[in-house]
Design brief:
mainly beta; six-stranded antiparallel beta sheet; nine-stranded mixed beta sheet
Length: 512
Amino acid sequence: VNLAAVDLFANNASVIYYDDLSLVMAQTVCDAPSDIPWLSTSPISGTTAPATMTPVDVTFDSTGLAVGTYNANLCVVSNDPDPGPGNGTDLVVVPVQLVVEQAPPNIFVDPLSFSATQPQDTTSQQTLTISNTGGLTLDWTISEENLTAFPPIVIGQLVAAPASEDVGASQPASVSAPQSQPVVWAPRAILYDNGPMVTHPGGGSGGADASAVQTTLGNSSYGFNHSVSGAFRVADDFTVPAGGWMIESFTFFAYQTGSTTTSTMNAVNLRIWDGVPGAAGSNIVFGDTTTNRLASTAFTNVYRVLDTTLTDSTRPIMASVATVNTFLAEGTYWVDWQTGGTLTSGPWVVPVTILGQTAKPGSNGMQYSSSTAAWAPVTDSGAAAVQDLPFVIEGTTEAPPCSMLADIPWLALDSTAGATAGGASDDVTLTFDSTGLAVGTYTGNLCVFSNDPDAGPGNETELVIVPVELIVETGSAVTLSTLAAGSTALWSGLALLGVFGLGIVVWRRKQR
């Protein structure tokens, strides 16, 4: 510091006092800039035209920081001609503060589904683990949602059958004359329809609708095999929009040649995949191949015919409604299904049929045959065109799972609420009880509600839905006889061997 002078003022006093003084370089804010490890800006420099603005993103990152308060300044230096600091000057100082709190609770439920298979009048137990991978205490409760119980499909001896019913194939004799007033299927709340099958409204037998094979275009397949007895399956895809669907049911369409307008369908099973069935990476998200989900079946008021014989009545098409009651989030899915009937013909699934076209544009239906153990495109034997398959999805977009809570009578939990500290976990024992239950499949949901701040449903959110299933089978029994011992024999050592639904008592004879 260059001093020109030091002026000392005595004010005409008779005594003058002197003292020392210190010269200190005053440090102003932003004189010593340094990196702020928990803060970043983008961009860090720029040019702003007159009467415009430039946004700067400021990012706070608490990774690795301890709980506490962190303070710093952002120093905005510019060519503003006015001296600062302050807004409207060459230096604007922006204080920043980061308050790091303890991590919120984060729920992790394992496993995300349960299935128990056991004989009648028995119990079994499994364990649900609720973990808190966050910091603050996790408060959770478990509620139950009881769903429909389904009987199993009884599969008899498989029979050899063709993959499709084509023009010119031999036909079985009709069962009897059609009903005068058949029960007709009518949908209630359609979410999705995969395609039409009516080509001639009112042009069929008795004024019913007709679904005509387009023989003038080269088509020759009435329908495709997806029978339980023939071990065939069919599949097609659908897309769920944003927000998801609460699916109540699928309706599938099939016929058995020679039936009346009284439906002969007696079974439907289905699976929903998150990708192409059987492909690598595809997973089954709902359903199985043995549960009979058929809720109702009725005549559609449509006959499958040739375009040259519109009033033929030998192939009345039936609608089979299969109960689902599950929620699907946004995404593309595939449904594959199989139908059983009381006649020897088929059942045959009708393809999507559009007048004047050999197939619906973009068709990609598939068929599984047990003889090849593989999926292949559903293809019309005449036009060699891949077909789509009609089905209807009914349900709502408003009612997610766990909206209809009700006790599950065959399931007991040893705990339905808890508070789990950060980094800890709690186990809940589930007891499946088949006492008094008929043979069949019983389903429900465990609804795990918590104070996890993330929106659900899903693991690590405020609502975790855990599907539960109890499959009740007929128990087996073995009787051991002729266990007589001689007068010098001593029977000792009793062991009990438990084999699924089978109790065997084993004795060891010790000779003296």
